[in-house]
Fold this protein.
Amino acid sequence: MKTNKSSFLKVFYYTAIIFLAACHQEQSQNNKSHSYSKGRVIEKMICKKSASQNYSLYLPSSYHPDKAWPVIFFFDAHARGVLPLSKYKQLADKYGYILAGSNNLQNQQVWDEIKYSAQILLDDVTTRFNIDKRRIYASGFSGGARVASSLALLGGNFAGIISCAAGFPQSNDKPKYMFTWFGIVGNEDFNYLEMKNSELYLGNSPLKHQLVIFEGKHDWPPQDIMEEAFLWLEVNAFKEKYEQTNDSLLFSIRKKFEAQISLYEDEHDHVARFIALNKTINFLDGLHDISSYRKYLAVMEISKEYQNEKGSETIIENREYSKQEEYRNAFSAKKVNWWKNEIDGLFNLEKSKDHKISLMAKRLINYISLIAYMNASGALNAMNNNATEQYLQIYKMADPENPDFHYLTACFFAKQNKLQEALNSLAKATDYGFADIDKAKEDNNLRSLQNHEEFLLLLKKIETNQAGKQ
Protein backbone atom coordinates (compact mmCIF):
# COMPACT_ATOMS: atom_id res chain seq x y z
CA MET A 1 0.00 0.00 0.00
CA LYS A 2 1.39 3.38 -1.01
CA THR A 3 1.46 6.26 1.38
CA ASN A 4 0.98 9.72 0.03
CA LYS A 5 4.33 11.41 0.66
CA SER A 6 2.74 14.84 0.93
CA SER A 7 0.19 13.64 3.54
CA PHE A 8 2.94 11.93 5.51
CA LEU A 9 5.03 15.10 5.59
CA LYS A 10 2.03 17.11 6.74
CA VAL A 11 1.32 14.67 9.58
CA PHE A 12 5.00 14.69 10.54
CA TYR A 13 5.13 18.49 10.43
CA TYR A 14 2.07 19.02 12.63
CA THR A 15 3.17 16.30 15.04
CA ALA A 16 6.54 18.00 15.38
CA ILE A 17 4.87 21.37 15.94
CA ILE A 18 2.65 19.93 18.68
CA PHE A 19 5.64 18.19 20.28
CA LEU A 20 7.79 21.33 20.19
CA ALA A 21 4.93 23.42 21.57
CA ALA A 22 4.48 20.95 24.43
CA CYS A 23 8.22 21.01 25.10
CA HIS A 24 8.18 24.80 25.02
CA GLN A 25 5.22 24.90 27.45
CA GLU A 26 6.98 22.47 29.79
CA GLN A 27 10.19 24.49 29.56
CA SER A 28 8.23 27.69 30.24
CA GLN A 29 6.80 26.08 33.38
CA ASN A 30 10.25 24.94 34.42
CA ASN A 31 11.67 28.38 33.73
CA LYS A 32 8.85 29.89 35.77
CA SER A 33 9.59 27.59 38.68
CA HIS A 34 13.30 28.34 38.57
CA SER A 35 13.18 32.05 37.76
CA TYR A 36 12.58 32.89 41.42
CA SER A 37 14.74 31.64 44.25
CA LYS A 38 13.09 29.11 46.52
CA GLY A 39 13.87 28.67 50.18
CA ARG A 40 15.14 32.22 50.74
CA VAL A 41 13.52 35.60 51.29
CA ILE A 42 13.56 37.86 48.23
CA GLU A 43 13.59 41.35 49.72
CA LYS A 44 12.13 43.32 46.82
CA MET A 45 9.76 42.27 44.05
CA ILE A 46 8.59 45.15 41.85
CA CYS A 47 4.91 44.89 40.90
CA LYS A 48 4.35 44.65 37.15
CA LYS A 49 1.34 46.99 37.13
CA SER A 50 2.98 49.71 39.23
CA ALA A 51 6.70 50.21 39.76
CA SER A 52 5.96 52.25 42.90
CA GLN A 53 4.60 49.12 44.61
CA ASN A 54 6.86 46.32 45.80
CA TYR A 55 6.87 43.44 48.25
CA SER A 56 9.09 40.80 49.82
CA LEU A 57 8.55 37.19 48.79
CA TYR A 58 9.21 33.73 50.16
CA LEU A 59 8.64 30.64 48.05
CA PRO A 60 8.85 27.41 50.06
CA SER A 61 11.71 25.10 49.14
CA SER A 62 9.25 22.61 47.62
CA TYR A 63 7.45 25.17 45.44
CA HIS A 64 6.65 24.12 41.89
CA PRO A 65 4.06 25.70 39.58
CA ASP A 66 2.44 22.36 38.76
CA LYS A 67 0.17 22.70 41.82
CA ALA A 68 -1.81 25.54 43.38
CA TRP A 69 -0.39 26.92 46.64
CA PRO A 70 -1.95 28.77 49.57
CA VAL A 71 -0.53 32.25 50.17
CA ILE A 72 -0.37 34.57 53.18
CA PHE A 73 -0.04 38.31 52.58
CA PHE A 74 1.69 40.08 55.47
CA PHE A 75 1.17 43.73 56.44
CA ASP A 76 3.65 45.16 58.91
CA ALA A 77 2.83 48.43 60.71
CA HIS A 78 6.00 50.00 59.30
CA ALA A 79 5.90 48.40 55.83
CA ARG A 80 8.77 46.02 56.63
CA GLY A 81 7.64 43.18 54.41
CA VAL A 82 10.83 41.21 54.90
CA LEU A 83 10.46 41.05 58.70
CA PRO A 84 7.53 38.60 59.09
CA LEU A 85 8.76 36.52 56.17
CA SER A 86 12.15 36.06 57.85
CA LYS A 87 10.43 35.13 61.13
CA TYR A 88 8.01 32.59 59.66
CA LYS A 89 9.75 31.12 56.59
CA GLN A 90 10.34 27.81 58.40
CA LEU A 91 6.58 27.51 58.94
CA ALA A 92 6.04 28.24 55.24
CA ASP A 93 8.34 25.33 54.40
CA LYS A 94 6.76 23.02 56.97
CA TYR A 95 3.15 23.61 55.91
CA GLY A 96 3.62 24.61 52.27
CA TYR A 97 2.72 28.32 51.98
CA ILE A 98 3.87 31.17 49.79
CA LEU A 99 4.51 34.32 51.86
CA ALA A 100 4.34 37.88 50.50
CA GLY A 101 5.04 40.94 52.67
CA SER A 102 3.99 44.42 51.55
CA ASN A 103 6.69 47.11 51.54
CA ASN A 104 4.11 49.86 50.92
CA LEU A 105 1.18 49.40 53.29
CA GLN A 106 1.74 50.85 56.76
CA ASN A 107 0.19 52.93 59.55
CA GLN A 108 -1.72 56.15 58.91
CA GLN A 109 -2.62 55.59 55.25
CA VAL A 110 -6.03 56.53 53.89
CA TRP A 111 -8.36 53.76 52.74
CA ASP A 112 -8.00 54.51 49.01
CA GLU A 113 -4.22 54.09 49.27
CA ILE A 114 -4.63 50.86 51.22
CA LYS A 115 -7.10 49.42 48.75
CA TYR A 116 -4.96 50.37 45.74
CA SER A 117 -1.71 48.96 47.15
CA ALA A 118 -3.40 45.77 48.33
CA GLN A 119 -5.04 45.12 44.96
CA ILE A 120 -1.77 45.67 43.07
CA LEU A 121 -0.03 43.28 45.46
CA LEU A 122 -2.69 40.58 45.17
CA ASP A 123 -2.79 40.84 41.39
CA ASP A 124 0.98 40.57 41.08
CA VAL A 125 1.36 37.49 43.27
CA THR A 126 -1.66 35.65 41.88
CA THR A 127 -0.57 36.20 38.26
CA ARG A 128 3.11 35.34 38.77
CA PHE A 129 2.50 32.17 40.78
CA ASN A 130 0.08 29.26 40.85
CA ILE A 131 -2.12 30.29 43.77
CA ASP A 132 -5.04 28.35 45.23
CA LYS A 133 -7.67 31.11 44.96
CA ARG A 134 -9.71 29.45 47.73
CA ARG A 135 -6.78 29.76 50.14
CA ILE A 136 -5.69 33.40 50.11
CA TYR A 137 -4.98 34.71 53.61
CA ALA A 138 -3.80 37.95 55.20
CA SER A 139 -1.88 38.65 58.37
CA GLY A 140 -0.90 41.93 59.96
CA PHE A 141 0.80 43.38 63.01
CA SER A 142 -0.62 46.40 64.89
CA GLY A 143 -1.80 48.90 62.25
CA GLY A 144 -1.10 46.22 59.66
CA ALA A 145 -3.57 43.94 61.45
CA ARG A 146 -6.25 46.59 61.02
CA VAL A 147 -5.36 46.73 57.33
CA ALA A 148 -5.76 42.94 57.02
CA SER A 149 -9.05 42.97 58.92
CA SER A 150 -10.43 45.89 56.89
CA LEU A 151 -9.58 44.18 53.61
CA ALA A 152 -11.37 41.02 54.73
CA LEU A 153 -14.40 42.91 56.03
CA LEU A 154 -14.83 45.08 52.94
CA GLY A 155 -13.30 43.10 50.09
CA GLY A 156 -14.13 39.45 50.49
CA ASN A 157 -10.88 38.24 48.90
CA PHE A 158 -9.54 36.39 51.94
CA ALA A 159 -10.37 33.00 53.39
CA GLY A 160 -8.75 33.85 56.71
CA ILE A 161 -7.07 36.55 58.77
CA ILE A 162 -4.23 36.26 61.29
CA SER A 163 -4.54 39.43 63.35
CA CYS A 164 -1.53 40.22 65.56
CA ALA A 165 -1.67 42.87 68.32
CA ALA A 166 -4.63 44.85 66.95
CA GLY A 167 -8.24 44.08 66.17
CA PHE A 168 -10.94 45.29 63.84
CA PRO A 169 -11.43 48.93 62.86
CA GLN A 170 -14.10 50.56 64.99
CA SER A 171 -17.46 49.58 63.54
CA ASN A 172 -20.83 48.34 64.70
CA ASP A 173 -21.42 46.54 61.41
CA LYS A 174 -21.21 42.76 61.33
CA PRO A 175 -18.86 41.14 58.77
CA LYS A 176 -20.33 40.93 55.27
CA TYR A 177 -18.02 38.20 54.00
CA MET A 178 -17.13 34.78 55.34
CA PHE A 179 -13.57 34.28 56.59
CA THR A 180 -11.89 32.75 59.61
CA TRP A 181 -10.15 34.95 62.19
CA PHE A 182 -7.17 34.05 64.36
CA GLY A 183 -6.08 36.69 66.85
CA ILE A 184 -2.74 36.79 68.67
CA VAL A 185 -1.73 39.24 71.41
CA GLY A 186 0.91 39.44 74.14
CA ASN A 187 -0.22 39.50 77.77
CA GLU A 188 1.78 42.74 78.25
CA ASP A 189 0.49 44.39 75.07
CA PHE A 190 -1.34 47.72 75.45
CA ASN A 191 -3.83 46.37 72.88
CA TYR A 192 -4.62 43.31 75.01
CA LEU A 193 -8.13 44.49 75.91
CA GLU A 194 -8.79 45.55 72.33
CA MET A 195 -8.00 42.06 71.10
CA LYS A 196 -10.31 40.50 73.66
CA ASN A 197 -13.04 42.87 72.46
CA SER A 198 -12.41 41.81 68.87
CA GLU A 199 -13.10 38.21 69.83
CA LEU A 200 -16.32 39.34 71.56
CA TYR A 201 -17.23 41.29 68.41
CA LEU A 202 -17.14 38.01 66.50
CA GLY A 203 -18.97 36.08 69.22
CA ASN A 204 -22.41 36.37 67.67
CA SER A 205 -21.23 36.16 64.06
CA PRO A 206 -21.02 33.01 61.92
CA LEU A 207 -17.26 33.48 61.52
CA LYS A 208 -14.97 30.87 63.04
CA HIS A 209 -12.60 32.66 65.39
CA GLN A 210 -9.92 32.02 67.99
CA LEU A 211 -7.77 34.30 70.19
CA VAL A 212 -4.39 33.15 71.52
CA ILE A 213 -2.48 35.04 74.22
CA PHE A 214 1.29 34.64 74.60
CA GLU A 215 3.83 35.96 77.06
CA GLY A 216 5.17 39.14 75.49
CA LYS A 217 4.70 42.77 74.53
CA HIS A 218 3.54 44.57 71.38
CA ASP A 219 5.33 42.69 68.62
CA TRP A 220 5.02 40.04 65.94
CA PRO A 221 4.49 36.79 67.88
CA PRO A 222 7.24 34.19 68.26
CA GLN A 223 7.34 31.34 65.77
CA ASP A 224 5.82 28.71 68.08
CA ILE A 225 2.74 30.90 68.63
CA MET A 226 2.42 31.76 64.93
CA GLU A 227 2.53 28.03 64.21
CA GLU A 228 -0.87 27.70 65.88
CA ALA A 229 -2.18 30.23 63.35
CA PHE A 230 -0.83 28.12 60.48
CA LEU A 231 -2.50 25.07 62.05
CA TRP A 232 -5.75 27.06 62.27
CA LEU A 233 -5.58 27.72 58.53
CA GLU A 234 -4.87 24.05 57.88
CA VAL A 235 -7.75 22.64 59.94
CA ASN A 236 -10.21 25.08 58.42
CA ALA A 237 -9.03 24.05 54.96
CA PHE A 238 -9.84 20.46 55.98
CA LYS A 239 -13.29 21.54 57.16
CA GLU A 240 -13.99 23.33 53.87
CA LYS A 241 -12.74 20.31 51.87
CA TYR A 242 -10.02 22.45 50.27
CA GLU A 243 -7.43 19.93 51.42
CA GLN A 244 -7.56 16.23 52.26
CA THR A 245 -7.77 15.71 56.03
CA ASN A 246 -4.41 14.86 57.57
CA ASP A 247 -5.12 12.50 60.49
CA SER A 248 -1.55 12.55 61.82
CA LEU A 249 -1.62 16.36 61.95
CA LEU A 250 -4.94 16.32 63.81
CA PHE A 251 -3.51 13.79 66.27
CA SER A 252 -0.48 16.02 66.94
CA ILE A 253 -2.75 19.05 67.45
CA ARG A 254 -4.89 17.13 69.92
CA LYS A 255 -1.87 15.91 71.90
CA LYS A 256 -0.32 19.38 71.96
CA PHE A 257 -3.49 21.07 73.21
CA GLU A 258 -4.21 18.35 75.77
CA ALA A 259 -0.71 18.93 77.17
CA GLN A 260 -1.53 22.64 77.50
CA ILE A 261 -4.78 21.83 79.33
CA SER A 262 -2.93 19.52 81.73
CA LEU A 263 -0.27 22.16 82.39
CA TYR A 264 -2.86 24.79 83.32
CA GLU A 265 -4.62 22.23 85.49
CA ASP A 266 -1.36 21.57 87.37
CA GLU A 267 -0.88 25.33 87.78
CA HIS A 268 -4.49 25.75 89.01
CA ASP A 269 -5.03 28.43 86.36
CA HIS A 270 -8.74 27.82 85.76
CA VAL A 271 -9.31 30.59 83.22
CA ALA A 272 -6.28 29.58 81.11
CA ARG A 273 -7.43 25.94 81.25
CA PHE A 274 -10.93 26.93 80.14
CA ILE A 275 -9.50 28.94 77.22
CA ALA A 276 -7.20 26.06 76.18
CA LEU A 277 -10.11 23.61 76.30
CA ASN A 278 -12.30 25.91 74.23
CA LYS A 279 -9.46 26.33 71.71
CA THR A 280 -9.20 22.55 71.36
CA ILE A 281 -12.92 22.39 70.57
CA ASN A 282 -12.67 25.23 68.02
CA PHE A 283 -9.80 23.51 66.21
CA LEU A 284 -11.18 19.97 66.14
CA ASP A 285 -14.91 20.59 65.75
CA GLY A 286 -16.13 18.72 62.67
CA LEU A 287 -12.88 16.76 62.36
CA HIS A 288 -12.73 14.74 65.57
CA ASP A 289 -15.07 13.52 68.31
CA ILE A 290 -15.11 16.44 70.76
CA SER A 291 -18.01 15.35 72.95
CA SER A 292 -15.74 14.65 75.94
CA TYR A 293 -14.18 18.12 75.63
CA ARG A 294 -17.61 19.74 75.54
CA LYS A 295 -18.69 17.89 78.70
CA TYR A 296 -15.48 18.91 80.45
CA LEU A 297 -15.99 22.54 79.39
CA ALA A 298 -19.59 22.58 80.64
CA VAL A 299 -18.52 21.28 84.05
CA MET A 300 -15.68 23.80 84.26
CA GLU A 301 -17.87 26.75 83.33
CA ILE A 302 -20.15 26.33 86.33
CA SER A 303 -17.39 25.46 88.79
CA LYS A 304 -16.85 27.79 91.73
CA GLU A 305 -13.09 28.00 91.05
CA TYR A 306 -13.57 29.13 87.45
CA GLN A 307 -16.35 31.58 88.31
CA ASN A 308 -14.29 33.20 91.08
CA GLU A 309 -11.19 33.50 88.93
CA LYS A 310 -13.14 34.83 85.96
CA GLY A 311 -14.86 37.38 88.19
CA SER A 312 -11.53 38.62 89.54
CA GLU A 313 -10.17 38.89 86.00
CA THR A 314 -13.19 40.95 84.92
CA ILE A 315 -12.67 43.36 87.84
CA ILE A 316 -9.01 43.82 86.87
CA GLU A 317 -9.89 44.39 83.20
CA ASN A 318 -12.56 46.97 84.11
CA ARG A 319 -9.97 48.75 86.24
CA GLU A 320 -7.58 48.72 83.29
CA TYR A 321 -10.22 50.20 80.97
CA SER A 322 -10.89 52.96 83.47
CA LYS A 323 -7.19 53.78 83.83
CA GLN A 324 -6.65 53.88 80.06
CA GLU A 325 -9.45 56.42 79.72
CA GLU A 326 -8.06 58.46 82.62
CA TYR A 327 -4.60 58.55 81.03
CA ARG A 328 -5.94 59.60 77.63
CA ASN A 329 -7.82 62.51 79.19
CA ALA A 330 -4.97 63.46 81.54
CA PHE A 331 -2.14 63.57 79.05
CA SER A 332 -2.32 67.22 78.15
CA ALA A 333 -4.01 68.27 81.40
CA LYS A 334 -1.74 66.86 84.11
CA LYS A 335 1.76 68.07 84.98
CA VAL A 336 4.89 65.96 85.08
CA ASN A 337 4.77 65.44 88.85
CA TRP A 338 1.30 63.86 88.60
CA TRP A 339 2.60 61.48 85.96
CA LYS A 340 5.65 60.63 88.06
CA ASN A 341 3.45 59.57 90.97
CA GLU A 342 1.19 57.60 88.66
CA ILE A 343 4.04 55.79 86.88
CA ASP A 344 5.88 55.07 90.14
CA GLY A 345 2.66 53.54 91.46
CA LEU A 346 2.40 51.29 88.42
CA PHE A 347 6.00 50.14 88.77
CA ASN A 348 5.23 49.23 92.39
CA LEU A 349 2.05 47.44 91.29
CA GLU A 350 4.09 45.52 88.74
CA LYS A 351 5.79 43.77 91.69
CA SER A 352 2.46 42.45 92.98
CA LYS A 353 2.31 38.78 93.92
CA ASP A 354 -0.96 38.60 92.01
CA HIS A 355 0.29 37.80 88.52
CA LYS A 356 -2.77 39.24 86.77
CA ILE A 357 -2.48 42.56 88.61
CA SER A 358 1.22 42.65 87.73
CA LEU A 359 0.37 42.10 84.05
CA MET A 360 -2.26 44.85 84.20
CA ALA A 361 0.38 47.27 85.55
CA LYS A 362 2.80 46.32 82.76
CA ARG A 363 0.13 46.88 80.12
CA LEU A 364 -0.74 50.29 81.58
CA ILE A 365 2.92 51.32 81.61
CA ASN A 366 3.15 50.24 77.97
CA TYR A 367 -0.06 52.17 77.27
CA ILE A 368 1.44 55.35 78.75
CA SER A 369 4.51 54.74 76.59
CA LEU A 370 2.29 54.55 73.51
CA ILE A 371 0.32 57.73 74.17
CA ALA A 372 3.53 59.54 75.16
CA TYR A 373 5.04 58.59 71.82
CA MET A 374 1.96 59.73 69.91
CA ASN A 375 1.64 63.03 71.76
CA ALA A 376 5.37 63.79 71.63
CA SER A 377 5.42 63.07 67.87
CA GLY A 378 2.43 65.34 67.31
CA ALA A 379 3.87 68.18 69.40
CA LEU A 380 7.25 67.85 67.65
CA ASN A 381 5.66 68.13 64.21
CA ALA A 382 3.60 71.10 65.43
CA MET A 383 6.85 72.72 66.65
CA ASN A 384 5.43 73.07 70.17
CA ASN A 385 8.68 72.80 72.11
CA ASN A 386 7.18 73.12 75.60
CA ALA A 387 4.65 70.34 75.01
CA THR A 388 7.25 68.14 73.29
CA GLU A 389 9.63 68.49 76.21
CA GLN A 390 6.92 67.60 78.74
CA TYR A 391 5.70 64.59 76.76
CA LEU A 392 9.25 63.31 76.34
CA GLN A 393 9.76 63.57 80.11
CA ILE A 394 6.70 61.38 80.65
CA TYR A 395 7.86 59.00 77.93
CA LYS A 396 11.25 58.64 79.61
CA MET A 397 9.69 57.88 83.01
CA ALA A 398 7.49 55.14 81.52
CA ASP A 399 9.86 53.57 79.00
CA PRO A 400 13.47 54.78 79.34
CA GLU A 401 14.93 51.95 77.24
CA ASN A 402 12.58 52.38 74.31
CA PRO A 403 14.64 53.25 71.20
CA ASP A 404 11.79 55.40 69.86
CA PHE A 405 12.02 57.64 72.94
CA HIS A 406 15.70 58.32 72.27
CA TYR A 407 15.05 58.77 68.55
CA LEU A 408 12.33 61.38 69.21
CA THR A 409 14.65 63.11 71.69
CA ALA A 410 17.32 63.25 68.98
CA CYS A 411 14.79 64.84 66.62
CA PHE A 412 13.79 67.35 69.31
CA PHE A 413 17.39 68.43 69.89
CA ALA A 414 18.21 68.50 66.16
CA LYS A 415 15.30 70.86 65.44
CA GLN A 416 16.69 73.21 68.07
CA ASN A 417 20.14 72.93 66.46
CA LYS A 418 21.56 71.24 69.58
CA LEU A 419 23.58 68.93 67.40
CA GLN A 420 25.77 67.12 69.92
CA GLU A 421 22.79 66.41 72.18
CA ALA A 422 20.94 65.12 69.13
CA LEU A 423 23.80 62.84 68.14
CA ASN A 424 24.13 61.52 71.70
CA SER A 425 20.41 60.69 71.80
CA LEU A 426 20.53 59.03 68.39
CA ALA A 427 23.49 56.94 69.58
CA LYS A 428 21.39 55.78 72.55
CA ALA A 429 18.55 54.93 70.18
CA THR A 430 20.88 52.69 68.18
CA ASP A 431 22.26 51.12 71.38
CA TYR A 432 18.70 50.17 72.36
CA GLY A 433 18.04 48.66 68.93
CA PHE A 434 16.59 51.41 66.71
CA ALA A 435 16.46 49.78 63.27
CA ASP A 436 14.42 51.93 60.86
CA ILE A 437 17.12 53.02 58.43
CA ASP A 438 14.73 54.57 55.88
CA LYS A 439 13.15 56.74 58.56
CA ALA A 440 16.52 57.93 59.86
CA LYS A 441 17.76 58.77 56.36
CA GLU A 442 14.62 60.60 55.25
CA ASP A 443 13.49 62.33 58.45
CA ASN A 444 13.49 66.12 57.95
CA ASN A 445 13.79 66.53 61.71
CA LEU A 446 17.36 65.21 61.45
CA ARG A 447 18.35 67.30 58.44
CA SER A 448 20.80 69.41 60.47
CA LEU A 449 22.82 66.24 61.24
CA GLN A 450 23.18 64.92 57.71
CA ASN A 451 26.65 66.32 57.02
CA HIS A 452 28.16 65.11 60.29
CA GLU A 453 30.52 62.16 60.14
CA GLU A 454 29.13 60.81 63.43
CA PHE A 455 25.63 60.78 61.92
CA LEU A 456 26.85 58.71 58.95
CA LEU A 457 28.46 56.21 61.33
CA LEU A 458 25.22 55.96 63.30
CA LEU A 459 23.32 55.25 60.07
CA LYS A 460 25.60 52.26 59.51
CA LYS A 461 24.78 51.00 63.01
CA ILE A 462 21.07 51.40 62.32
CA GLU A 463 21.48 49.38 59.12
CA THR A 464 23.22 46.68 61.13
CA ASN A 465 20.34 46.69 63.65
CA GLN A 466 17.85 46.34 60.82
CA ALA A 467 19.75 43.45 59.26
CA GLY A 468 19.85 41.73 62.65
CA LYS A 469 16.05 41.83 62.90
CA GLN A 470 15.55 40.19 59.52
Summary: Residues 336-469 form a domain with the Serine Threonine Protein Phosphatase 5, Tetratricopeptide repeat fold (CATH 1.25.40.10).
